[in-house]
Design brief:
By secondary structure, this protein is an alpha+beta fold. It contains six helices and twelve strands. The strands form two sheets. It has a six-stranded antiparallel β-barrel with strand order 1-2-3-6-5-4. It has a six-stranded antiparallel β-barrel with strand order 7-8-9-12-11-10. A hairpin with a 5-residue loop joins β10 and β11.
Length: about 270
């Protein structure tokens, strides 16, 4: 029982880590605790005041909140509507995030019903909403680009230059089951998953909670940079089972570069 409590407490505190240096300090403390087997040692580690007399766990919580608040304005809920005699009715939804002023990226399967040139409705974290148009769809890699009013994208998310490693903490943001601005935490389980023939370079596997509606939302690292895009879950009941997948950031960037290159070629 003591070991169970100790491990659960370690996971709770570890889940709020942000910077590599603090993460290293934290894990060194946890490993020392596991080796010694003492619960009191852990309390001394995590409640020990830092130089400004603030306990480390409070600093980590504050950084976790700051990360969520700073990234959320760049994430959108994408709604697909269909016209009925009673007017437009929602037929599905997903998520997307801003990568440039006026440009969102999402999953191809989210906007496929609208098609290229089709219209969708987007909602931001401030409860604002507006029209957007589908620019490109890459079904092979499950990536799509959506055009939106540049004024609606004051916050741009940045891609991480590095592939995350197994065990790294990551955070999934999106609108699962239509509940937008949802933020969940987990770890990278694997980075070379070939869950679909369209992903020869593999997907990122994570145990961060991903559910229907999270598709197209960003998977970010502790610095708030995008390491992937939530795309699939392995669950027979279409709900989180601890096995989720994300398209790698490098795959998304390659698709964007190819789209821009084709636009330039067609203009010449």
């Amino acid at each position: 029982m003591k070991k169970t409590i100790m491990v659960m407490t370690a996971a709770l505190f570890a889940g709020t880590s942000v910077h590599a240096s603090k993460w290293g300090q934290q894990m060194n403390g946890v490993l020392a605790t596991l080796r010694s087997g003492g619960f009191k040692v852990m309390n001394k580690i995590h409640h020990k005041p830092t130089e400004d007399h603030t306990p480390l766990w409070m600093q980590l919580n504050e950084e976790n909140r700051h990360r969520a608040e700073s990234v959320m304005p760049g994430v959108f809920m994408i709604i697909i509507e269909q016209m009925t005699p009673a007017g437009p009715q929602p037929m599905g939804s997903g998520s997307g995030f801003a990568i440039e002023p006026g440009l969102l990226v999402t999953n191809a399967h989210v906007v496929a019903p609208a098609g290229i040139g089709g219209g969708v409705l987007v909602r931001d974290s401030m409860k604002g909403s507006g029209p957007a148009n589908v620019l490109a769809i890459d079904r092979k890699h499950d990536i799509a680009l959506v055009s939106i009013d540049p004024a609606a994208t004051p916050h741009i998310l940045k891609f991480s230059p590095e592939l995350p490693k197994r065990g790294d903490w990551v955070f999934a943001i999106g609108a699962p089951f239509g509940v937008k601005d949802t933020y969940t935490a987990g770890q990278v389980s694997r980075t070379t998953v070939e869950a679909h023939p369209g992903f020869p370079q593999g997907l990122i596997q994570t145990d961060a909670a991903i559910n229907p509606g999270n598709s197209g939302g960003p998977l970010i690292d502790g610095m708030g940079n995008v390491v992937g895009m939530n795309t699939q879950i392995a669950a027979p009941a279409r709900q989180n089972s601890g096995i989720g997948f994300a398209v790698r950031a490098a795959t998304i960037q390659a698709m964007i570069a190819e789209y821009k290159s084709s636009k330039l070629a067609s203009a010449n």
